[in-house]
Structure formats: C-alpha cells, structure tokens
Write a structure and sequence with these properties.
Helix content is 57%, strand content 11%. The protein has 392 residues and is of the alpha/beta class. The protein has one domain (4-204, 249-311, 334-370): TIM Barrel (Alpha-Beta Barrel). The radius of gyration is 21 Å and the shape is globular. Residues 371-392 have low confidence and may be disordered. It has an eight-stranded parallel barrel, surrounded by ten helices. The longest helix is centred in the last third of the chain and has 35 residues, at 334-368. The chain has 19 helices and eight strands.
Amino acid sequence: MTDRLGELSAAGVAIWLDDLSRVRLSSGGLDQLRREKHLVGVTSNPTIFAKAMSDADEYNWQLKDLATRGLEVEEAVRLLTTYDVRWACDVMRPAYDATAGVDGRVSLEVDPRLAHETEKTVAEAKGLWWLVDRPNLFIKIPATEAGLPAITATLAEGISVNVTLIFGLDRYSAVMDAFLAGLEQAKANGHDLSKIGSVASFFVSRVDSEVDKRLEKIGSDEAKALRGKAAIANARLAYERYCKVFASDRWQALADAGAHPQRPLWASTSTKNPDYRDVMYVEELIAPGTVNTMPEPTIHAFADHGEMRGDTITGAYDDARKVFTDLEAVGVDMSDVIVVLEREGVEKFEASWLELLDGVRKSLAEAGKGAGKPGQAAKGSAQAAEQAGGNA
C-alpha cells in the first residue's frame, strides 16, 4: 500500500494540520494523526477557534469556573485558547523532540485587532508565550507593515514566530529580513538560536480566488486560460527568494551560531474551486525545507490519491514568471491583488475574533446560570494530563 504522506514527508515537506479543537484533543484524534499520518505540526487562527468553541459542550466545565470567577470575556478567551494550545503542544512534543525542535510546533495567533500596532503586538506575543509556557509554541504575527518590526522584536526576545498572512513577494522578502534581524538581535541578547523557530506562512488558495474573480470579469479566452495558475506561480517565486536569502553570507553567520532557517509554509491549501483537483496545492508545491498546513480532509485526500512527482517548485521559476507576465498582459494588477488580500485577511480574522468573543460571552452567561456538566472539570483535567504524557 502506497504511503503517499510518507513520501511527501521524505521529499522535505513537513505535514501540518490547519485545525485545532477541544474535541480533537479529548478524542485523541490529533495524536492519531501524528502517529498515523506523519503529522508534525498544528496551526490555529481566530476562525478555527470561533468554530471550535461554537460547540460549548466540550468547554462547559471550564466556562462554569470562569463564570464563577467573574472573568472578563477577553481574559476567558485567552485562558480557553491557551489551554487547548498547551494541550496540543504536549501532544506534538514527540515530533518536536524527534526533529530537534524544527517541527512538533503549535501556532497561536495574537489578537488580530493589533495587526497595525507594533508595541501591543510584541506585548501580546510575550504574554501568550508566558501563558502557554511550552518550547514548541509558535506565536503567529501578521505580516502587516506594523507587524514586521514586531516580528523582529519578538524573535529578539527568544520567542518563536509563525509569520502569517503573507500574500506578496516583496512583503515576503521583508519578512525574511525581519527574521534575520530578529535572530541577529537574539544572538546579541544571549539567546540560544537553536531553540528559536520560525515559519513564514504564504497564503495560496486565496490568491487564486481573487485573481480568478478578476479573470472571469475580464472574460477573454486568454484571461480564462490563466485561471488557477496565479497562486502556484506566486508561491514558487516565493520559494526562489527563500533559496537565495538562505544561501547568503548573512544567513550563514546565523546558521554557524546554531540557527534554523525560517521555512516557507504553504497556508490555505485546500482548493476553493470545485473544478480544481482537491490536492493541487500540495502536489504543485513540493520542495525541500517547506511546510504544508492542510485541513484534515486535504490530508486524507492526498493520502488517498495524491501524486508525487518529485520537486515541483525548483526549476519552474521561469514558467511562474511567465504566468505573472501573462496576467499583467490581460489586465490583472497583482500589486492591487496583494493589497486587497492583506486587508481582507486582517478583516476576516478580526471578524472571527469578534465572533469568538461574542460566543464566549454568551457561553459565560449561560454557565453563570448554572449550566455545565457535573464532574466535567475532573474529566477535563484527567484528559489533559493523559494527552500531555508528562511533557510539562
């Protein structure tokens, strides 16, 4: 029987799950994926948590305690989400240990409402790092203009960072520069660079969604022929930049001090258009030193019928550049596409965060009326301890 996920992993692609929930943790489902599907990482975001906490039953015992203490909703959300992330970090700890800290990571995002406030983002990142208190945590910081100096400052504190919401090539170059500057400062501050990790989350399917919409509006045969090509071309050209930066003398000085490279992470890799192959953004973005974070259905789809064709990025740079040239020729302004996607990305996560706050606010009110299941607190604590496996 072909182990397609094993082959993908052997090709240098770290397989991460783009989902997290209390149900997944308490059922042992996350640990099963780690053991059986080559899973070595987990990402979360406000949308994922808003969905997870819409099922309040799994959180009732904790919500009742929080309501009894009279906590404000934002503090309650922090305690609920960091509880899940801490638990997930413990589940993924074997992968962290097996890869000397490169993988086995779990990502937790700063409040998206801080996306344009540098100092508050850094303070939030530090607070989350203290609260989760696990070495295999990633703090997610968006790659906005205000986020760039926050990335550097957070890394300088010795805190591992997942840079999120990257859509454009120039912004990606700025992210890599912020990473290098952060490690240089971390080294000057006396931190062990081998303990600091980072990935740069380059969004994929959303690029095609926006570009395809514009191509449909243009309507010519030449425009329609370019549908479904922009996102892969964009990611491939990002990988080209990654290879150049991490072959530089500047990087080598950090590598000599024990640093790990900031790997490109392909995010949003489920296809949104049903006309496209469901594993397209996995098959077409295979190269050493990358991460692909997928929803569980995409992981299972690739395990079932994914095609391995070796490295599908390196050597495809000229074709990718031609796609960009052709897009410009038919009237697609990629610089405007990137601006729109970044703005919408931040807005969507802000909306999900507000939805999460509203949902927890209502759940706290219900819990304060005496809702909750007797004995659930003990049950939840026992489950957490069992899943953690002693990895404090």
